[in-house]
Amino acid sequence: MTAAPQPLFIEIGDRRLFALYHPAQNEARGSVLLLPPFAEEMNMSRRMTYLTGRALAGAGYGVLALDLTGTGDSSGDFYDARWQTWQEDARSAGLWLAEKTGQMPVSFGLRAGALLAASLNRAQPLILWQPVGNGETMLNQFLRIRMAAGLTGGPAGSGAKETTRDLRAMWQAGESVEVAGYEIHPDLAADLDVLRLADMTPRPGSTVIWIETGDAERGPMPASQRIIDAWTESGIRIDIRLCPGEPFWTIQETTTAPEMIDRTLQALQQL
Fold first, then answer.
1. Which domain holds residue 220?
2. 35, 65, 247, 263: most buried, per Cβ within 10 A?
3. Predicted confidence (pLDDT) per residue in 57-107, tens digit
4. Residue 114 and residue 92 in one domain
5. 173-214, pLDDT tens digit by residue?
């Protein structure tokens, strides 16, 4: 019988991070730190995150699924979030998990969580699910949510629809920008803007498990392939697993992609 996951808080100074810990079942094989996507993609991925944690725990991995500062049930508002704070959150959660399980965790990043996982520059393997490769592109796509909602605020109250240029000008002027209930501080936007997964090359000789939805015959998306090629040339072993599945991180209705979990388990067990 699978043990129930354990909700808990990790204290970091005056911050309290909420996390869900899935204890390893049967013989412990390792531990996994699960880092979430950005903003609303995190909420849309809740079900898959839970199912992944449960499946990995059943295979012998202790899994910690983390809510970063200003998100979920962790302390602070989204406005309080900074990239450096999220990195500190991830490092502290990794140390908690290592102490709990006696093993340094594999960092598992979903979407923008892949940028966070890779930025930690650990010697342990990485698991990247549908990774975001470019922070600037991600932010532009996020800003389009506000634009699609039909909010206005053009020059001098003209009533014209906002553009990404208008919204970015607000950040440059030191103002926050609210999108779908998430108020993004200009410092966070500036940090995310310069993030490039291609620049976060893992340590030579390390292993990356790269999971994407897609057609195995066509291969990874072109942007992904460029990163994979660059990392491979740097001596990184990349285990690419393509599988069918819906983009659950973009769908309001609860949607799952069980084959992504299956491929991840297969790859982990072959490390």
1. 6-134+197-269
2. 35
3. 999 999 999 999 999 999 999 999 999 999 999 999 999 999 999 999 999
4. yes
5. 999 999 999 999 999 999 999 999 999 999 989 999 999 998
Domains identified in the chain, total number: 2
Predicted TM-score of the model (pTM) = 0.94
Distance (Å, whole) CA 263 – CA 244: 11
Q: Both 218 and 158 in a single domain?
A: no
Give the dihedral of Cα atoms 114, 118, 119, 121; nearest 10 deg.
160
Task: Identify whether the C-beta of residue 213 lies closer than 8 Å to the C-beta of residue 246.
Answer: yes
Same domain? For 232 and 114 the reply is yes
128 and 143 inside one domain: no
